[in-house]
Write a structure and sequence with these properties.
Helices cover 58% and strands 14% of the residues. With 431 residues, the chain is of the alpha+beta class. The protein folds into four domains: 155 residues, no CATH class; 86 residues, no CATH class; 63 residues, Roll (SH3 type barrels); 82 residues, Alpha-Beta Plaits. Strands 6-5-4-3-7 form a five-stranded antiparallel β-sheet. Strands 8-10-9 form a three-stranded antiparallel β-sheet, with helices on one face. Strands 1-2 form a two-stranded antiparallel ribbon.
């Protein structure tokens, strides 16, 4: 039932007059002053107590979990001291017998204790902003219950709203939606991350299948969390029928690339064409795959740069996967020697020099072939295999050339350079 603005204002005025009459009593003013004084006193006491506890905590070695709990407790030490002071004051009031009723002190003690417990429990969240926001929201709800005004506040919040179909949309419903959806989404994401980490550590699955299963689990949990959160607050899912049609049109036009990259990512994970750890070349980008995401693939190059390549490009463009079916990669290093050299000796020395490089595998064995008679040199190519292309290709080629150079220098084999001979002919002038 809708409540008019005039009714809300009249109720607020009535509550204000009642509060003014209540807070003008002597026993109430005494309790307010006592609560404020204890709050001010708790700060210096907490500072001195913290110094003592920090000194004792520094003596603890090799127990990081316990130290983290101590640090969390020290941050809330002021509130713990305040709650202790309030508890002692309640015992003193009960022994004296005045005031006969002390609702402000008892309510303040309950509120402070609730804030202390909620703020300690919220530290399980890594984000400080999120932890403080959730702690504040939960504490407000608990405070309304402790003060006995939860029903009145709910009625006021529910009075401001409108009806959409069979569902009433109000401020209360929006607050409940944010809370329930936030909690369910947080639980879904946390559970999804935990399951994904467990799957990534599984040795029975290949890397692509690990990523695919992890992504499907996270997306499924998030969808279930949204549906459960919406159902928990009493919203009929048929209300979103119109919005789902609009979302479909948006996907068809504005989100076309996003959906294309998402579907391409699922295809890549399904056919296992690339996986984390593979060394690939896409266009002019050469590097190893660090991570597969729903929208892009993270490729780290040898110079430390990280390229985020859309999944669609890996489907539509030519991709060289250096370790798709086999981690063996063959490389060629061409070189030339002088015509005065023995080609059989050159081939044997080049193979011996190549075998001595660390990254060159023994099987298949390196080979060296003569490829032609050049203008100023005998042309050769040495071919060898490596198993770690992610560690670079240019550097291993450079090591091979240096090894061949050292071997040729030790055996007096010359590496030629182009030269030209110019003949000058004297032409007799006609008489």
């Amino acid at each position: 039932m809708d409540i008019s603005l005039e009714t809300v204002l009249s109720r607020l005025e009535e509550y204000s007059l009642q509060a003014l009459d209540y807070f003008s009593r002597s026993e109430v003013l005494f309790q307010l002053g006592l609560a404020v004084g204890l709050l001010l006193l708790s700060r210096p006491v907490a500072v001195r107590l913290r110094r003592v506890l920090e000194t004792q905590a520094r003596t603890i070695k090799g127990r990081p979990g316990l130290l983290r709990l101590i640090v969390i407790g020290l941050r809330r030490l002021k509130w713990a001291v305040f709650v202790a002071f309030l508890g002692l004051s309640i015992l003193v009031i009960q022994s004296i017998g005045w005031p006969a009723r002390y609702p402000i002190i008892s309510s303040t003690a309950l509120l402070a204790l609730a804030w202390l417990v909620i703020s300690l429990l919220s530290n399980i969240l890594r984000s400080r902003f999120l932890a403080r926001s959730i702690a504040f929201i939960v504490w407000i709800y608990v405070a309304l219950i402790i003060l006995g005004v939860a029903d009145t506040a709910a009625e006021l919040l529910d009075s401001a709203g409108f009806t959409l179909g069979t569902t009433r949309i109000s401020i209360l419903l929006l607050l409940k939606s944010v809370f329930f959806l936030g909690v369910t989404l947080w639980l879904a994401v946390s559970l999804g991350n935990s399951l994904e980490n467990r799957i990534q550590r599984s040795e029975d699955l290949n890397p692509s299948l690990r990523v695919l299963i992890g992504k499907i689990l996270k997306i499924s949990l998030i969808v279930i969390a949204v549906l459960v959160g919406i159902s928990a607050i009493g919203i009929d899912l048929t209300v979103f029928t119109v919005f789902s049609g609009a979302v479909g049109v948006g996907i068809g036009f504005g989100l076309q690339k996003v959906v294309s990259n998402f579907i391409s990512g699922i295809i890549i994970l399904s056919d296992r064409s690339i996986k984390p750890g593979d060394t690939i070349t896409v266009g002019e980008t050469f590097g190893w795959i660090r991570e597969l995401r729903a929208r892009f693939v993270s490729v780290v190059t040898r110079d430390g740069r990280e390229f985020l390549i859309p999944n669609e490009d890996l489907i539509t463009q030519q991709v060289i996967n250096w370790s798709f079916s086999n981690d063996l990669v063959r490389l060629d290093v061409p070189f030339g020697v002088s015509y005065r050299s023995d080609p059989h000796l050159v081939s044997r020395l080049a193979i011996e020099a190549t075998v001595g490089v660390n990254r060159v595998v023994e099987s298949p064995a390196p080979v060296c072939w003569m490829t032609g008679f050049g203008e100023s040199s005998l042309d050769f190519v040495v071919r060898f295999w490596i198993r770690d292309p992610q560690n670079g290709l240019t550097n291993v080629r450079g090591q091979i050339l240096l090894a061949i150079w050292d071997t040729f220098k030790a055996n007096d084999i010359l590496v030629p350079y182009p030269h030209r001979e110019v003949y000058v002919h004297q032409v007799d002038k006609p008489e």
